[in-house]
Structure formats: C-alpha cells, structure tokens
Amino acid sequence: MDSNGTNTINASEEQIDLEHYTQSVIASISSKASPRVKKAFPILIKKLHEFIVEADVTVEEWLAACALLVEAGQVTTDQRDEMVLVSDVLGVESLVDILAFKRSSEAAKKDQQASAVEPSHSAILGPFYRHGVPIQPNGTTIVRQLEKDADYTRLFGRVFDAQGKPLKGATVDIWHDAPDGLYDAQDPTKPQYHCRGRFETDENGRYETICLRPTPYPIPFDHSAGKLLQMMGRHPYRPAHIHVSKSQGWVRGIPLTLCVTQFWIEAAGHKTLVSQVFDRESDYLKDDAVFAVKDSLIIDFIPIAQGKSAKEGYTAPDELRDVLKYELEQDFHLTKAVGGSEDPGLDIQGLAIGGEPVKS
Ligand SMILES: [Fe+2]
Using CA atoms, how far apart are residues 100 and 120, in angstroms rounded to an integer? Predict the structure, then answer.
C-alpha cells in the first residue's frame, strides 16, 4: 500500500514499477494475521510474483494452470489425492519431507534424554494412504487374495521410542501395490484393503505380517500430474517400494490428519513417522518420478527356503509355506513429538470457508 493508502497500480505508465506492486500486495496482509502467515506469505507472494515476471507468464498460461489445479481437485477422492500427486512430480512433497526430517532430527539431537540412535528416515506419504484400515493380528497376511507367482515376503521388525526402548502399542500401517502395479483403490476387482494392513506392536515393540515383494508402477497419469509429466517429457514410474506409517500419540501436521484418531487423546509423545522402503534390485531407483528415494531407505529382500527363517527358526503358516520366498526385517526409531509452540503454524484445516468477510 502506498502513502495514499491505496494498492492500485498505474498501468498507463511506460515503466510499471513491479517491485512496488509486489510490495503493495505484501503490505495488504493485515496486522491481525497469524505470526506464521505474516512470516510465510510475504515470501510466497514475492517468489510467486518473481516467477510470473521472469517466466513472462501469459494470460492463457495462467488460466491453463488454474484449470489444471481445478481438475486435480475434481478428481481427488478419499482414495486418491491428485493434488499430492501434482506436488510429488514437482518434487515439493519430498522437499517438505526432507525439511521435516531435518527439523525432527535436530530436535532429537538437542534433547539430552534422547537416544544416541539416529531416528528412522521418513519419506513422502503419497496419494494412496487410506483411513480406517482395521488393525489385524501380528503375523497375518495383508495379501487378501492369492497372487499366483508373486514373491510373498515375511515383513517384521521392532519399533523403538526416542530413548531406544521397544515401544508397545504403536500402530504400523503398511501398504504396497499388487503385482499388476495397482493399489487396492485403483482396482475394484480386488478385495478391500488388498496389500494393505494395520498392526499394533506387542510388548517387545514387534510387528509382523506377510506381504509381497512389490513391483515398480506408474503413478496415475490420466489427469493433472500426468499432464505435467507429459509437458516435461518425463516417465511416470516409481521404483518398487513398501509404504510404512507408524504412530503412537498425537503429532501436528499432515501425518496427524491421516492418523487414526484413537491416539489423539492418549498422547504418548512420539512423532508420527511416514516412510517407505525401496527394493535394491528395482528399476527406477535413480529416477523415481516423485523424487522420494533416500539411500538409507534402500533395502534387501533376503531369500528364504520353504517358508523358514534361518535367523529365528520361524515357520510360515501352512497355507503360505510354499509361496513365502523372502523376508525383510525393518526396525523403526521414532522421535519425541514436538510440544506446543508460540507459533502454531498454518491451521488451514481449521479455516471456515465463507461467512462474514474480515473487516480491517
Ligand atoms: Fe507407492
């Protein structure tokens, strides 16, 4: 806003003062805005305006970009999030994840009570997480329909707290694609929750299931994210991976809204960890369409014979003994949840849409 208290722009001038224009937009943010908005929005507006000017964006391009986001919203359901996918192919979700891990890792190091063990690395959530998956007994399979010729895998491990002690009662969500490269939500011919399950760790912090060795798959490219990939001349494939999400207690941020709410009240003070593990032998490890591969998350599937684990003398259930070909032991180390802060962040979920306009 200028000295006359106006934020209009004189477009008849030969040299329009774009910097002044951007500053007037930033200055329009009310003093009543939250501290987080007052800190973040000026940066957002400045960078966005710089992009528009430097790329010399046309009206047609701007409208096309708006239409692309509208389309993403229209095809988003509770089983597929196209907006997340749009952010993924531009590397944004992975960047947010990298910053989140750095933040929690540094907080853990500062905490004198914390274990010397490094927290497990996180990875992006992706568009196919599902709410409301029922908890099933440890050791049972998440493969809900026989997958002929698939590589059945025993997946097990322990979840540890911030002090390095086994954590009882943590929920472990696991999901991966079927051998045809599709998640359950993409394939109505498959049973509900196929290749997806939720477990609760026992008194030793253990979880266990039988899943499949996953296969590389293309992310959905039939809408906005696919159009972006096409524009950039990129392929849509992801390397073979298994998604894992663990929680015990309440945390703030995106993972919270995707956690089951029964842990909201009984806060045990650990930050939800959302992660993935990647098959070392998979294609596309070096050119993941959504930039999520971290060296620390690349793992090996260990071959086992006749459903028996050499390590623990484990024997598979009779019906799966002939198909169980690999095992994968994967432990996870959680960090303490970050407590309340003076700046609560952007509560976008809590904003009321509509209603009376804000009066200055
Ligand atoms: Fe995935």
Answer: 12
